[in-house]
Amino acid sequence: MRSPTMTRRLASLLLVLLGATASAAAQQTAAGQAQPSAANAPAHQAVDGIAAVVNKQVITLRQVDIEAQKAQAQLKQQNIAVPDQQILRRQVLQRMITDALLSQEAERLNIQVTEAGAQQAAEVIAQRNRMTVAQLRAEIERSGVSWADYLKDLRHEVMVDQLRQRTVDRNIHISDADVDAFLKTQKRSGLSSLGQQRGQAQPPQQAQPSVLGLAQILVAVPEGAPAAEVQRLRGKAEELLARLRGGADFASLAASSSDAPEALQGGDLGVRPPEGWPDLFLQATQNVQTGGVSDIIQSGNGFHILKVVTRGQEPQQTQAPASVAEPQRSPAPEGPMMVTQTHARHILIKITPAMTEERALERLRQLSHRLSMGENFEELARLYSEDASAPQGGDLGWLTPGETVPAFEQAMNALQPGQVSEPVLTQFGWHLIRVEERREKDMEDEYRRMQARQALFQRRVEPAFEDWLSQLRGQAYIDNRLDPQSSRRPR
Question: String of b and e for 211-249 (b: at least 16 CB within 10 Å)?
Answer without folding.
Answer: bbbbbbbbbbbbeeeeeeeeeebbeebeebbeebeeeee
